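Researcher: Let's do a round of design. I'm pasting the C-alpha cells now; please hold your answer until I've finished.
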C-alpha cells in the first residue's frame, strides 16, 4: 500500500529538477541490472503491511490493539530487508538503505507490552501482555482468585447442603446466584437469601458469595481501565517516534516503487531516457505503455517523434481509428514517465524537461455547470493558451470539432497561429486534426510540420498501418470507418454518393481557408444556362421579354433534366 500511494504521488507530481530525476533513474537502473537481487527484494516486500498508515493512526489517537500487533509484525521484518540491501554496492541503493531505521526500541516495547492475540477493542481485557505492568498483574491475580473461589463454590455448597443438583449461575441482572429446585427448597442452609422465584426453582445468594462477586466485578473494571491507560501510554511513546517510523515507511515504499518500475522495465523492454534541460523531443520506436498490454495477441506498432531545429508544432492528420490519439497520448505518457523517474517504452528517448503537460483530449458535457461539449473544450483551450510556456508540452486532439465545420477550422487555425507566433509561448505542440485545411499552415508558419497516419488501400479495402509519416493526409476515410462500425449498407452507399457530389463541387472552389467560398453553387461554373443569365442585361429588356426568357429557360431546363 505504501508503494502504491507513493507511485500515485510520483505520477501526479513529476519532477522538474534534473538531479532528482537522475537519482530516481539510478535507483531503478540498479534494480534493473540485477534480476536475482531484484526478485529477492520484491519477494520480501510482499509480506509487509502499511507502516505509514499504522503510524498515522497511532499518532491520531485512533489506533486499536490490532494496529500495534501489525506494527510489531512490520518492524520484525525490517532487519531482513536491511540485510538484503547490504549486499548492494550501488550508491543509489545505499541512499535508500540509510533511510531505513529498524526501530529496535519500538519493536521491543511492542513485544513486551501487547498480547499476541489481543481483543479487537479496548472494551475487553487481555490487551496487555502479562508481566508488563505489576499493577495490572495484581488486579488480574485478584480477579482470578475470586473467580476460582466462585468456580469451586458449587461443589462446596452441594457437599454442605446435601443437595446434589444445586447449581451456581450468573446473569447480568442478579450477578452470581445459587439455584435449587423447589423439591429441595426445604433443605437449603439458613444463611441462603432468596433472591428470585421461578416455576420449578428458587435462586439464592449468600453474603460471602456477593463479597467475592464484588471482588471479581471491581477487579475486571479496574483491569479494563488500567489496560486503557497503559495502551494509551504505549501509543504516546510510539507517536513520539513517528518521524523515525514515517522515514522508514517512505524508504520501504520507495524500494517498492523503484523495484517495481525496474521489474516492468525488464519484462517489457523499457529503456532509461536521456534527459536534459534543453527542448529536445526525440523518441525512437515509442510505444503506449497501456495499449500495448491490452493487445497481447497483436504487435503494437511503435512510432518515432523527433522535433527538428526550429520545429514547434506538429500537425497530424489521418482517419479515425488510425491511431492519432494513441500516438499523442503515448508521447505525453513517455515524457511524464521519464520525469517521474521511470524507464520508458521506447528504443531511445532524448527529452528536454517540460514544466507542464497540457492536454485537450476527448469531449464531454458538464451539464451540472451548464456547459456544452464545445464550451468545455473552449474553456480548456483557453486555459492552455493562457498558461503554457515555451517549456511546456501541449497535446491537442481534434480542437474545434464541437462546432460547425467552418467555425472549427477557423478556431483550430487561429490556435495554431497563436501557439506558433506568441513570443512567450511557442510550446512544443502535437495537434491531431481531421481538418485537412490545417496542413496549409506549414506554408505560412516555419515552425509547423505536417505528419499523417499511414493508410494502405488494397482491393477496395482500407488497412490502417498505425505508422506516423511525414506529410498531410489526402483522405479522411470517414465512410470506411462508418462501414467498420456496422452502418447499414444503404447509408454507406448514399454517403459515398453525397461525398462524390461534394468533392466535385469543391473542385470548383478555392482550397485556401483564408479566401475559400463558404457555400456550394447550385450550378457548375461552366453551365450554359448560367452563362446566359450572366450575359442578360436586365436594364434593356421589358417585363414581357423577361417573362418570355424565364419561360424559355424553364422549358429547356425541365427538358434537359428529363433527358
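Researcher: That's everything. Go ahead.
Model: Designed sequence:
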Amino acid at each position: 500500500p505504501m508503494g502504491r500511494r507513493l507511485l500515485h504521488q510520483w505520477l501526479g507530481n513529476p519532477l522538474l529538477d534534473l538531479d532528482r530525476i537522475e537519482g530516481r533513474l539510478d535507483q531503478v537502473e540498479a534494480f534493473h541490472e540485477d534480476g536475482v537481487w531484484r526478485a529477492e527484494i520484491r519477494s520480501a516486500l510482499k509480506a509487509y503491511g502499511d507502516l505509514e498508515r499504522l503510524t498515522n493512526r497511532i499518532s491520531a489517537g485512533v489506533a486499536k490493539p490490532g494496529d500495534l500487533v501489525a506494527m510489531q509484525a512490520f518492524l520484525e521484518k525490517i532487519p531482513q530487508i536491511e540485510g538484503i540491501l547490504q549486499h548492494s554496492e550501488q550508491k543509489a541503493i545505499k541512499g535508500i538503505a540509510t533511510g531505513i531505521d529498524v526501530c529496535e526500541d519500538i519493536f521491543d516495547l511492542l513485544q513486551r507490552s501487547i498480547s499476541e492475540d489481543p481483543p479487537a477493542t479496548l472494551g475487553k481485557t487481555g490487551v496487555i501482555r502479562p508481566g508488563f505492568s505489576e499493577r495490572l498483574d495484581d488486579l488480574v491475580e485478584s480477579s482470578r482468585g475470586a473467580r476460582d473461589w466462585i468456580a469451586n463454590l458449587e461443589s462446596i455448597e452441594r457437599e454442605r447442603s446435601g443437595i446434589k443438583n444445586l447449581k451456581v449461575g450468573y446473569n447480568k441482572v442478579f450477578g452470581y446466584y445459587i439455584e435449587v429446585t423447589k423439591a429441595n427448597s426445604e433443605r437449603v442452609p439458613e444463611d441462603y437469601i432468596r433472591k428470585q422465584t421461578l416455576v420449578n426453582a428458587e435462586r439464592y445468594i449468600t453474603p460471602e458469595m456477593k463479597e467475592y462477586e464484588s471482588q471479581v466485578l471491581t477487579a475486571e473494571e479496574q483491569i479494563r481501565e488500567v489496560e486503557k491507560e497503559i495502551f494509551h501510554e504505549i501509543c504516546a511513546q510510539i507517536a513520539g517516534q513517528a518521524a523515525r517510523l514515517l522515514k522508514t515507511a517512505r524508504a520501504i515504499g520507495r524500494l517498492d516503487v523503484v523495484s517495481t518500475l525496474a521489474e516492468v522495465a525488464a519484462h517489457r523492454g523499457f529503456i532509461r531516457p536521456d534527459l536534459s534541460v534543453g527542448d529536445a523531443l526525440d523518441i525512437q520506436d515509442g510505444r503506449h505503455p497501456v495499449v500495448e498490454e491490452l493487445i497481447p495477441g497483436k504487435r503494437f506498432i511503435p512510432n518515432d517523434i523527433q522535433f527538428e531545429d526550429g520545429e514547434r508544432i506538429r500537425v497530424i492528420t489521418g482517419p479515425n481509428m488510425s491511431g492519432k490519439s494513441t500516438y499523442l497520448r503515448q508521447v505525453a505518457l513517455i515524457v511524464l514517465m521519464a520525469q517521474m523517474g521511470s524507464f520508458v517504452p521506447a528504443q531511445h528517448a532524448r527529452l528536454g524537461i517540460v514544466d507542464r503537460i497540457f492536454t485537450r483530449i476527448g469531449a464531454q458535457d458538464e451539464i451540472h455547470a451548464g456547459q456544452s461539449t464545445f464550451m468545455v473544450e473552449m474553456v480548456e483551450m483557453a486555459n492552455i493558451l493562457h498558461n503554457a510556456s515555451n517549456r511546456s508540452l501541449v497535446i491537442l486532439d481534434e480542437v474545434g470539432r464541437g462546432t460547425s465545420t467552418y467555425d472549427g477550422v477557423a478556431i483550430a487555425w487561429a490556435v495554431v497561429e497563436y501557439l506558433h507566433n506568441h513570443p512567450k509561448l511557442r510550446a512544443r505542440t502535437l495537434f491531431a486534426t481531421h481538418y485537412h485545411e490545417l496542413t496549409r499552415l506549414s506554408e505560412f508558419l516555419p515552425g509547423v510540420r505536417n505528419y499523417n497516419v499511414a493508410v494502405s488501400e488494397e482491393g477496395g479495402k482500407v488497412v490502417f498501418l498505425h505508422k506516423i509519416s511525414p506529410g498531410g493526409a489526402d483522405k479522411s476515410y470517414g465512410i470506411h470507418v462508418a462501414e467498420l462500425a456496422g452502418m447499414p449498407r444503404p447509408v454507406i452507399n448514399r454517403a459515398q454518393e453525397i461525398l462524390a457530389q461534394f468533392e466535385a463541387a469543391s473542385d470548383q472552389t478555392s482550397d485556401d481557408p483564408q479566401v475559400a467560398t463558404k457555400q456550394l453553387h447550385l450550378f457548375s461554373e461552366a453551365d450554359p444556362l448560367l452563362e446566359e443569365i450572366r450575359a442578360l442585361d436586365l436594364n434593356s429588356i421589358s417585363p414581357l421579354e423577361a417573362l418570355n426568357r424565364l419561360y424559355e429557360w424553364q422549358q429547356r431546363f425541365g427538358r434537359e433534366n428529363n433527358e
